[in-house]
């Protein structure tokens, strides 16, 4: 049996939750199917064809990012570039049609997200079985902009609602990451309940450990030996992470600086060039190959998300590394059953209105938080992920 995965890229970077999930799905596909081809649309020019074991990666053109005054204006006003999206819709169809033989030879076509409708259209023209992995319902994300950025809310709702309806209609199986989103897909998009599955996210430990000597060496290198480090991790080219960082640098960090000069915010991930920040208590690391080192040196981890959908892998990473967490309800969405079993002082889920006060209280009681031992076994995430995904693959063989 063969599989074809169609995705944005470059997935091996694992630079955000989307790529982490796709990497994990590709790994499971390679275990379940004899051969797999990944057709991916990276946002930069990289090597075209690469083979790893029984998986062949083919990089396609059409999603390369550009930066100019017009694209930056669109992103600032409506949070996305409609010209880039329009260009991508055209190029993605042409590129995928060029590789239609790869799609045609697959027993199942797995499409990562609702924003590549050309993949659904071509797969159905070739009479292929289609599995759509939503990653998150974009219409739910758009709703969070309603009170703050009405134009972004209107255009995102209009554009993404159309794409989600089309791609779900052209899919034999739809996968959601949480029970809330599974029910939303069934009720809002009228997809048959038997076709909609929940497959949770999974996070694995990164390659480095958090040994004290390594952590202290990194703190010294960054000049943070005597500081309390509050960390946020995420690809800031993604709208919900960019919005959270705007809140950190425009509101949260200045407030904390007025109260505590010994606290610094460490922003980990791609996209730091998007922000013009000269605050003395904010440090951007850029993309790092091994986030375990930086999370290991963190005292508290935060997720002050104001918009979002799906399940945030950053919270799962924080938990695996045993770090106290302060997050909004949106940041913790989909992980409520797990969090409810943990010490409420260790994982604090609050509204944005009380985020600053909650963080200051956590910082003031850091010695107590350090005494709380939270052990989250990443193997639990992996086993649950594999079980649910296997159910989808077996169902796909029957329909």
Explain this structure to me?
With 399 residues, the chain is α/β, with parallel strands linked by helices. The protein is 45% helix and 18% strand. Strands 3-4-2-1-5-6-7-8 form an 8-stranded mixed sheet, with helices on both faces. Helix 10 (239-259) links the parallel strand 9 (228-233) and strand 10 (263-268). Helix 3 (82-98) runs parallel beside helix 5 (117-125). The longest helix is centred in the middle third of the chain and has 21 residues, at 239-259. It is globular. The relative contact order is 0.11.
What labels describe this entry?
399 residues, alpha/beta, 8-stranded mixed beta sheet, 6-stranded parallel beta sheet, 16 helices, 18% strand, globular
Task: Provide a concise account of the structure shown.
This protein has 399 residues and is α/β, with parallel strands linked by helices. Helices cover 45% and strands 18% of the residues. The model has no long low-confidence stretch (mean pLDDT 92).
Strand order within the widest beta sheet: 3-4-2-1-5-6-7-8
Q: What is the total tally of β strands?
A: 14
The amount of beta strand, in percent, is: 15-25%
The main sheet comes to:
8 strands, mixed
Q: Low-confidence stretches at least 5 residues in length (pLDDT < 50)?
A: none
- Compute the CA-based radius of gyration: 21 Å
């Amino acid at each position: 049996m063969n599989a074809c995965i169609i995705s944005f890229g470059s997935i091996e970077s694992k630079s955000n939750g989307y790529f982490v999930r796709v990497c994990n799905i590709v790994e499971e596909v390679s275990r379940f199917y004899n051969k797999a081809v990944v057709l991916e649309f990276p946002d930069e020019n990289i090597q075209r064809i690469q083979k790893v074991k029984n998986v062949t990666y083919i990089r396609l053109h059409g999603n390369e990012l550009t930066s100019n005054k017009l694209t930056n204006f669109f992103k600032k006003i409506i949070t996305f570039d409609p010209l880039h999206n329009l260009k991508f819709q055209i190029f993605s169809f042409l590129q995928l049609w060029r590789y239609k033989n790869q799609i045609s030879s697959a027993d199942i076509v797995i499409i990562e997200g609702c924003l590549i409708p050309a993949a659904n259209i071509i797969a159905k023209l070739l009479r292929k079985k289609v599995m759509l992995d939503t990653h998150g319902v974009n219409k739910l994300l758009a709703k969070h902009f309603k009170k703050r950025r009405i134009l972004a809310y209107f255009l995102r709702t209009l554009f993404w609602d159309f794409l989600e309806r089309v791609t779900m209609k052209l899919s034999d199986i739809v996968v959601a990451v949480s029970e809330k989103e599974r029910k939303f897909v069934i009720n809002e998009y009228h997809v048959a309940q038997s076709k909609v599955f929940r497959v949770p996210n999974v996070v694995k430990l990164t390659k480095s450990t958090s040994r004290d000597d390594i952590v202290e060496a990194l703190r010294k290198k960054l000049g943070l030996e005597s500081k309390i480090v509050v960390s946020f991790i995420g690809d800031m080219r993604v709208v919900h992470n960019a919005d959270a960082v705007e809140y950190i640098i425009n509101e949260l960090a200045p407030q904390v600086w007025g109260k505590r000069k010994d606290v610094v915010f460490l922003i980990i991930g791609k996209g730091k060039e998007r922000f013009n920040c000269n605050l003395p208590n904010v440090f951007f690391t850029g993309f790092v190959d091994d986030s375990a080192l930086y999370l290991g040196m963190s005292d508290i981890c935060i997720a002050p998300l104001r918009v979002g959908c799906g399940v945030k892998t950053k919270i799962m990473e924080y938990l695996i590394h045993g770090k106290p967490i302060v997050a909004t309800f949106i940041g913790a969405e989909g992980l409520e059953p797990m969090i409810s079993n943990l010490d409420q002082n260790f994982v604090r889920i609050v509204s944005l209105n009380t985020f600053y006060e909650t963080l200051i209280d956590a910082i003031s009681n850091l010695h107590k938080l350090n005494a709380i031992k939270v052990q989250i076994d990443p193997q639990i995430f992996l086993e649950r992920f594999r079980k649910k995904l296997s159910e989808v693959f077996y169902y796909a063989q029957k329909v």
